Amino acid sequence: MRFIGNKEQLLNQIYSILKKEGVEGNSFFDFFSGTANVGKFFKKLGYQVYSSDILFFSYCLQKAYLENNQQPLFEKVDITIKEKQNHIFKNKFQEIIEFLNQIEPIKGFIYNNYAVGGTNKLKIPRMYFSDKNAQRIDAIRQQIEHWNKEGLLLEEEYFILLASLIESVGFYSNISGVYAAFQKKWDPRALKDFQIKPVEIIIGKYVGTTYNKDSLSLLNDIDANILYIDPPYNERQYAPNYHILETIARYDNPKITGITGMRDYKQQKSSFCNKSTALRDLDKIAKIAKYKYLLLSYNNEGIMPQEDIVSILKKYGSVKVVEFEYARFKSNSNGGSKTKKHIKEQLYILKKSEVN
Predict the structure, then answer these.
(1) Are 297 and 7 in contact (CB under 8 A)?
(2) Domains, in order of start, for the chain
(3) At what angle do helices 155-169 and 92-100 cross, to 10 degrees?
């Protein structure tokens, strides 16, 4: 998934640094989970993973990847696959996916609000999805919800299907990188026929524990060897950048406004998008949370200055900063940084003092 600050391409390097610096433990708390990619990585390595995010679509991904620890069986769902003789399925999950890819399109909330056909009376019709793909998303989302309300899905099966839909949507969205705006011309991939794809099922040593909460509310509840913090780096809130994924995940027919059809996100704002509150809450986390090592993943263009971060963390133990370059997220270029193709990842490693 294209996601601001996504660490998927950096995880091997980050892990190598942790090993080199002697960061040890078997439990890991991903404080701002986002795509759940960090949690997935450490679950595969055999860690007990805890994760949280205030966005519900992130929670769906966490539930599917981290908390689920077995292949879904979908024993209660009875389906008929058209032209089944042309398909070879390894398991029921693949049959379910093929069934969802064959159901008839429906004009639902996504079509009515984020496709040209449904918004052609607006001054600027919304071009997030082609008409056909928006209807396919609606049909699949409604089918998943129908199965769930009928009691035909186990909780983990419900979230596995939601995660599969959420992960698939980005491959057919008419956006540059985030959902804060749609493109005014059609991206070729947005015109391809929508297909839902199954998410990876990760069988780990431990079952993960996931939360759909403001992670700051969990400081006294989770005790992990490694506390990993990957907060927003600038003033742009994550919720409006991914509002359509949130709406598809919740499918709650929200009141929407503006050219982009934004849902209300005032209860999902991050304090790390403001310098003073970011530094305040970083101090709060470092002081109160239960951990042996705190890892802050940040970059050299973040709104929290390096000297301030180090000053705060040093109050609670020994601190080391490791930097390396990586390619910029293409929708994250702004101001005087537009021409820079690379930025520096900053990994702050705090080993907590025993007296704290």
Answers:
(1) yes
(2) 1-69+207-232+272-356 (3.40.50.150), 73-201+239-269 (no CATH)
(3) 50
Q: Tens digit of pLDDT for each residue in 150-194?
A: 999 999 999 999 999 999 999 999 999 899 999 999 999 999 999
Closest by alpha carbon to 163, among 193, 199, 134?
199
Point out which residues pair with 223 in neighbouring strands. 290
The amino acid at residue 308 is D
State the pTM of this model. 0.92
What kind and span of H or E run contains 224?
A: strand 223-229
Q: Decide if 52 contacts 218 (C-beta within 8 A).
A: yes
For the cut 60, the answer to whether the pLDDT of residue 205 exceeds it is yes
Task: Give tens-digit pLDDT for 20-52.
Answer: 999 999 999 999 999 999 999 999 999 999 999
DSSP state of 336: G
Region 97-113: what's the mean pLDDT? Answer: 97
- Quote the DSSP letter at residue 229: E
